[in-house]
Amino acid sequence: MKTIHPNKQAINDKGEIRKDLITKETKINDNKKKFLPILEFHLGNITSACNQMNISRGTFYDWINNDDDFKRQVDEIGEIALDFVESKLFQKIDGIHSKTDDGTVYKKEPDTTAIIFYLKTKGRKRGYIERTEIDLNDKRPDLSELSTIEIQKLLAENGE
User: What does pTM read for this prediction?
Assistant: First the structure.
């Protein structure tokens, strides 16, 4: 059974696509389709994906700025990459362990730094945040109007 192509003029007598009729837009769309799985493989790293496809970052950003569907797909790949990295963070938080008859035995203890990082970024609403408190009522002298000798005298009096 012969397949009927929607654009009959683009097919030659052998049923092959006529290369002389392939538009620049078609080539760009084909490159975008090829690019997306490469970008996903590189976990959203644009430079690595562009290098593998042999395109410039500028070309990539032209595609993003001029094609909302392509941008949406790239954004989704960014979410997939974030999910992957987040799963690795959870592995570090949980520790790498194996079950034995006696219970859970950790091969690697949970990573305290990973736990703190997670709480500082995701637990802010619960108060897991570092704060720098500045007391605006501090009665320190204004040193800008003192002479060098007066500053040295104050330092000596405070043991500094």
Answer: 0.56
Distance CA 14, CA 126 (A): 68
Q: Which amino acid is at 128?
A: Y
Ordered by start, the domain boundaries in the chain are 1-70
Cα distance between residue 92 and residue 7, in whole Å: 54
CA distance 26 to 28: 5
Distance CA 73, CA 56 (A): 19
Residue 105, both tokens: 């035995």
What residues in the chain have per-residue pLDDT under 50?
Answer: 1-6
Cβ proximity of 17 and 10 under 8 Å: yes
- Per this entry, what is the length of the chain? 160
